[in-house]
């Protein structure tokens, strides 16, 4: 009589001997174990090799994350990498890639959009400093409101799907 392989196992020779795992699982001692959440391909329980669509490997935690939800990180291939120290938000690895400067860093030359500290022959003008950070704070609040409204739409969609499933199971 044929028996199904254990969960996560693609090819098995017995219940406790798997030779190949399904996507999202890794093999250890001939048993398939689940990868980290949202990980499509891994070799062990702590490191993801490839994340599911829409996720990227966080360079510090090795977990799959939605990089756009990680403040101070940018997407680089399959990785979610930390911005340059001068950047609060960025699109790449250098201080020229900042979209918002970190505290005490400024876009002194607006043509390059480079975030930097005041040079030795300059000082911090507190009124300009306050204006710049008030603007950046408002921009961040707007981005958070947009993100929350998108998450609310997704939650409403899932509630509707669950309600439909409940309705069909009652029939």
TrEMBL record:
Name of the protein described by the UniProt record: Variant specific surface protein S2, putative
Species annotation: Tetrahymena thermophila (strain SB210)
Organism ancestry: Eukaryota, Sar, Alveolata, Ciliophora, Intramacronucleata
């Amino acid at each position: 009589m044929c028996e199904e392989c254990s969960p996560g196992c693609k090819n098995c020779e017995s219940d406790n001997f798997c030779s190949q795992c399904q996507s999202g699982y890794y093999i250890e001692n001939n048993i398939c174990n689940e990868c980290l959440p949202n990980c499509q391909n891994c070799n062990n329980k702590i490191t993801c090799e490839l994340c599911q669509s829409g996720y990227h490997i966080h360079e510090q935690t090795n977990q799959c994350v939605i990089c756009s939800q990680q403040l101070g990180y940018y997407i680089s291939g399959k990785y979610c990498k930390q911005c340059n120290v001068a950047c609060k938000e960025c699109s790449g690895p250098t201080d020229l890639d900042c979209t918002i400067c970190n505290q005490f860093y400024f876009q002194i030359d607006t043509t390059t959009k480079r975030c930097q500290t005041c040079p030795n022959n300059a000082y911090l003008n507190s009124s300009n400093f306050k204006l710049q950070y008030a603007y950046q704070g408002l921009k961040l609040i707007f981005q958070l409101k947009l993100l929350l409204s998108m998450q609310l739409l997704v939650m409403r969609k899932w509630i509707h799907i669950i309600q439909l499933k409940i309705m069909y199971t009652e029939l």
